[in-house]
Amino acid sequence: MSATKSRKVVLVGATGLVGSAIIQTLERFPIDPEPLVLMATKKSADRKVRFRGTEMRVEEFDPSAFDDAWVVFFSGKDGLSEKYCPIAAGKGAWVIDNSAVFRMADGVPLVVPEVNPHEIGPAPRLIANPNCSTVQLAVVLNPIRKNFGLKRVIVSTYQSASGAGSEYLAQLNRDTAESLEKGFGGLDASSLAFNCLPDVGSQDIDGKFSEEVKLENELRKILGMPDLPVCATAVRVPTQVGHGESVVIETEKPADPDEVRSLLGESDGIAVEDEFEAREFPTPRKATGMDDVYVGRIRRAGIFENDLAFWVVADNLLKGAALNAVQIALYIREREKAALVHE
Amino acid sequence: MSATKSRKVVLVGATGLVGSAIIQTLERFPIDPEPLVLMATKKSADRKVRFRGTEMRVEEFDPSAFDDAWVVFFSGKDGLSEKYCPIAAGKGAWVIDNSAVFRMADGVPLVVPEVNPHEIGPAPRLIANPNCSTVQLAVVLNPIRKNFGLKRVIVSTYQSASGAGSEYLAQLNRDTAESLEKGFGGLDASSLAFNCLPDVGSQDIDGKFSEEVKLENELRKILGMPDLPVCATAVRVPTQVGHGESVVIETEKPADPDEVRSLLGESDGIAVEDEFEAREFPTPRKATGMDDVYVGRIRRAGIFENDLAFWVVADNLLKGAALNAVQIALYIREREKAALVHE
Fold first, then answer.
1. Residues of B in contact with A231 (CB under 8 A)
2. Measured between alpha carbons, how far is A245 from A235 in angstroms, rounded to an integer?
3. Could you tell me which residues come within 8 angstroms of residue A94 by beta carbon, excluding any fewer than 6 positions away?
4. b or e along B218-255 (b: 16 or more beta carbons within 10 Å of the residue's beta carbon)?
5. Are A94 and A71 in contact (CB under 8 A)?
6. pLDDT tens-place string over residues A144-176
7. Phi/psi class of residue B30: alpha, beta or left (left: φ > 0; alpha: ψ in -120 to 50)?
8. Catalytic: B342?
9. Strand ranges (DSSP E) for chain A?
10. Residue A188: pLDDT over 70
């Protein structure tokens, strides 16, 4: 590996919610003074985006940009990832893919940097960024797994509109304004405005929706526990940003809530906010724009001999997507720097 | 018991959300052509309310109205119930109390008419109406308990603003309008607008909030299973009316989802809405103004040998409060009529 190797970063899907969040995250966590190439579909190309004080033009998607790329972030449609992630990786770029296409593929690392960065090897260069609901839960469960063992996970999600993209978020805002104006009955029953929708993603197997299957399977893969019993129920709620999760777990060993608070408070990427008397707990509103995964309401569940219940919230566009992807790139960069020192 | 006995119905707390819902429910389900007396605190007295086509005046609270009452509904403050429920019952009225004060008291029946109406004896005349989140869960769990046995219950709630009263609901609407106008950052972090708040009720024991303790304890009492392991997490979400619940249960016997759908579809007070392909499931928006408890997303949870996961929604002001209270009065009336026949 040479010190003069390209540090070019390519972002595919630069105009979506996650793409925009990746740009903002790269501003805050500069990997290197790399050139950045922003790409989007024809419809969104030519838009102007501010990055580190200069105005950048979004280019129309063109795979020749992968030729001398160091990292390519994919945050576009699944079909684009499916076709072009292997091509970009084949050209020697590190590919960090936010789609669901490769997450469960054998040999593709599915990485949360606080949990399993060591799974990034010299190859393959294609790395999958997990589903938003999964990242925040994996960050919290990993230290618990290490210290107390993990036997069973039951999670119900409270997912924000932004998880379904910018158009869905805009629709929530429009519908909410309309509902306030016309009264409750004026809206279609399928609107998210002042509503909860218990069907997130597409229909999958055994009466489950894809968001639930992703959460269950990706959690098992990230934690390295292929047989962990997990039951996820995914519900969309009328929030804009920030996914909440109500979690009950059975542990192998007794886990005292105070001990768990200390443990999690010292763990990377986690902020414990658990002030019972002052009623200060994580909420989507407080987590919006924040990097940490917030956890609170840590208590005994009272239904297994050893158990815990808690409440987790994170910004689904940051730790749930953009920040986690950039952290993967930062990890790779640090490892490359260390390798240079030892050459 | 004499046929000429008074049928006077008194409603304490007539101007609150639950009080208003009781008036509307009495219009739809006439107990008898009874005289109705509406009472409220001094602040709300003198308001005019329409009942069966005539305008009624809300009177200032006066316990002498209990003297010749047949049924007294209490839907005011806890303190009022605590003091006056026993007085009204002592005067011979059937008292149906919507407060939490007497629900867990020994000897006070806590009644969901679909589940345990037989617990209403000739005495005491004080009957507690359960917490809104509890009623809808008890209605669904009772047929499951009878047919498959019940070993463990894990529930996470998605509770609407109306559960915290009319002022809280109005505040949600104002805050939501303000948030849409000013943008996300313009509001206090504790606002429910586009937010989820995981602290419903007052602080109780073992890191739990009172709504959670109510759900756990009242469920055990209604189902007659004092040792049932139940873990409840109560979360307020930005909906106006209708409480959602994500439920996972362990059963004694294998419970096939299709069999459970048939069973629940034939059970009183339950509407199964579970169209996986068409994505038709219960939502707060659809349940608003409806009498039934809606259940869907019935599937195997996949974490116990015998288990189920499902999603329950009901109108918290109707089956969760007013309708359940009126159904208790209707049950008592039917029993009195039957007794007259046999006299």
1. 248, 301-303, 307, 309
2. 10
3. A70, A71, A72, A125, A127, A329, A332
4. bbbbbbebeebbbbbbbbbbbbbbbbbbbbbbbbeeeb
5. yes
6. 999 999 999 999 999 999 999 999 999 999 999
7. beta
8. no
9. 8-12, 36-40, 48-51, 54-57, 59-60, 69-74, 94-97, 126-128, 150-158, 230-233, 243-251, 270-272, 293-299, 307-314
10. yes
- Euclidean distance between CA atoms A267 and A275, whole angstroms: 18
pLDDT given at position A339: 85
The C-alpha torsion from A321 through A327 and A328 to A331, rounded to 10°, is -170
3-state helix, strand, coil in chain B (%, to 5): 35, 25, 40
Chain A: give the shortest CA distance to residue B72, in Å.
31
A71 three-class SS: strand
> Is the separation of the CB atoms in B124 and B101 below 8 Å?
no
Q: What's residue A33's pLDDT?
A: 65
Pairing of strands A59-60, A36-40: parallel
Tokens, residue A318: 């940051």
CB spacing of A297 vs B197 below 8 angstroms: no
User: Which residues in chain B touch residue A173, judged by CB atoms under 8 angstroms apart?
Assistant: 180
Cβ pair B233:A244 closer than 8 A: no
pLDDT at B34: 75
pTM of the model: 0.96
User: Does residue B33 have a cis peptide bond before it, meaning omega lies within 30 degrees of 0?
Assistant: no
**Among residues 97-156 of chain B, which lie with CB inside 8 Å of chain A?**
152-154, 156
Nearest Cβ partner for A303 among B152, B197, B309: B152
Mapping DSSP to helix (H, G, I), strand (E, B) and coil, where does residue B319 land?
A: helix
β-bridge mates for residue A155, sequence order: A232, A247
Query: pLDDT tens digits, residue range A271-314?
Result: 999 999 999 999 999 999 999 999 999 999 999 999 999 999 99
Q: How high is the ipTM of this complex?
A: 0.96
**Helical (H) or strand (E) element with B86:** helix B78-90
Q: For position B222, what pLDDT does the model report?
A: 98
Find the range with the poorest average confidence among A81-90, A155-164, A187-196, B127-136.
A187-196
The segments of chain B whose pLDDT lies below 70 read 1-4, 33, 343
Asked whether the predicted pLDDT for residue A41 surpasses 60, the reply is yes
Q: Does B94 touch chain A (CB under 8 A)?
A: no
Would you call B339 helix, strand, or coil by DSSP? helix
> Which one is predicted more confidently, A186 or A155?
A155
Segment A229-249 shows an average pLDDT of 98
pLDDT at B33: 65
What pLDDT, on the 0 to 100 scale, is given for residue A32? Answer: 76
The residues of A annotated as belonging to the active site are: 132, 243
SS3 B316: coil
CA–CA dist B142, A296 (Å, integer): 32
Quote the mean pLDDT of chain A: 95
Phi-psi region of B330 (alpha: psi -120 to 50; beta: other; left: phi over 0): alpha
Q: Which residues of B touch A208 (CB under 8 A)?
A: 299
Q: List the 164-203 stretch of A: residues with Cβ below 8 A of B.
A: 173, 176-177, 180, 184, 187, 189, 191, 194-199, 203
Distance from CA of B266 to the nearest CA of A (A): 21
Are B231 and B240 spatial neighbours (Cβ–Cβ below 8 Å)? no
Residue B264 in contact with residue B270, Cβ under 8 Å? yes
